[in-house]
Write a structure and sequence with these properties.
alpha+beta; 4 domains; six-stranded antiparallel β-sheet; four-stranded antiparallel β-sheet; 12 helices; elongated
Length: 400
């Protein structure tokens, strides 16, 4: 092209003689280099690689040496919940509504058709079983050795003078150490750019077909179990003694009842920290929640109707917070939501503080709060440890 139309105006053989890319070309093909030195080069860049996964989906081709992201996954599109014929399947932490739909890799559809399956008629459980039988099983972007993938990108980068658009897809459970190793390996291998995506790190667009959320795989049950394991959390709220019953499902809070301790109406020995919350349906169709625990002699004791032992106003707000817990919002976001409530009643504000304090202990260690800096050193280094905010830079702790 340079012979026909001329080189780009700034081309100068001497200026780029020491360029590593040009030197590799010279060593690999001396004749080509000599020809380029005389005629110049039409374009300043010779090669760049667009997002291979996306372009292969658009063009219905293979993704070459790039692994398939997943043979089937879910995408989400933002919708107006008031529109007709819209199925709202997901509401994010800011209240936006999304509709989920399955996306099948075109070659997986071909494999299904060859084996007598119609992808439009398959449920999620059937899809999971068929994926295990397909050539894609254990060979997707989440299954490969991610560090080796980056090394491969570095080997390709030697012959690509611009960047390579490639994403390293990591599972939700990935450690910070592995992410660090991926980035360091990219730098050591000579990659000009690298993108890391942790499954579930964005509340929309593209997600694994498995039903989970940002708390690392928690799936709320469609119906509340009759009995839930429960923790008892006791704390001081001002000068008052308060208690919280926290129902646990899959190792995270599912519901909460809390209020001031009334010993004459609800005596539970202080050494009792665990038990069960039982849902009981009354003859008139209403329901109540009882707390059961075993005493030091091994006998089962029942405290009836804990849902009604507290103020009715507390109970109504507790139902609201429990509804948010049951739908899987990350605990740190729920605590932030509760702490941000501005209520006129001093009594309810006291209750709100109690809920916040009770839930703090369930925030996973290492969780970073949003938009908070350390008051001591000013760094964005705060993380939760055992429910307390601790600065990893200077050691400051909000719990003292």
């Amino acid at each position: 092209m340079a012979k026909e139309r001329g080189a780009f105006p700034l081309y100068n053989t001497r200026k780029e003689a020491a360029n590593p890319m040009i030197r590799r070309i010279k060593a690999a093909d001396p004749v080509l280099y000599k020809e380029m030195s005389k005629a110049g080069r039409r374009n300043i860049a010779m090669l760049t690689i667009a997002p291979t996964g996306t372009t292969s989906l658009m063009s219905q081709t293979t993704s070459g040496i790039e692994p398939v992201f997943l043979p089937v996954y879910k995408r989400r599109r933002k919708v107006n919940p008031n529109d007709k014929a819209v199925n709202v399947t997901f509401t994010d932490e800011v209240g936006d509504s999304w509709e989920e739909y399955n996306v099948f890799h075109h070659h997986f559809i071909t494999w299904l058709a060859v084996n007598g399956y119609d992808h439009k008629k398959l449920g999620n459980d059937e899809i999971d079983e068929l994926v295990k039988k397909s050539p894609y099983y254990k060979a997707t972007s989440n299954d490969i050795d991610w560090v080796s993938k980056v090394r491969m990108q570095g080997a390709i980068q030697q012959w690509v003078d611009h960047s390579i658009s490639v994403t390293v897809n990591l599972p939700n459970s990935v450690t910070e150490e592995l992410v660090d190793k991926v980035y360091r390996t990219a730098w050591e291998s000579g990659c000009k750019g690298v993108t890391v995506y942790r499954d579930g790190s964005r509340a929309g667009v593209l997600v694994s077909n498995k039903e989970k959320n940002e708390d690392g795989g928690y799936k709320p049950p469609l119906k509340r179990p009759e009995a839930l394991d429960a923790d008892i959390v006791r704390f001081k709220n001002g000068d008052e003694d308060w208690i919280a019953f926290v129902g646990i499902y899959n190792d995270r809070p599912y519901e909460i009842f809390t209020g001031k301790i009334e010993e004459d109406a609800m005596f539970i020995p202080k050494r009792i920290t665990k038990g069960s919350i039982i849902k009981v349906r009354e003859e008139d169709g209403s329901k109540r929640y009882d707390f059961q625990y075993k005493d030091k002699y091994g006998y089962t004791n029942t405290v009836g109707g804990i849902s009604r032992l507290f103020s009715e106003e507390f109970w109504n707000y507790a139902k609201l917070i429990s509804g948010v817990l049951r739908n899987g919002m990350p605990i740190v976001d729920i605590v932030s939501l509760v702490s941000g409530l501005h209520l006129n009643s001093e009594t309810i504000n006291t209750w709100k503080n109690g809920v916040e304090r009770a839930l703090h202990r369930y925030i996973p260690n290492g969780t970073k709060p949003k938009n908070l800096i350390c008051p001591e050193c000013g760094q964005e280094s705060l993380v939760y440890q055992e429910g307390c905010l601790v600065c990893t830079s200077c050691g400051h702790s909000k719990c003292g």
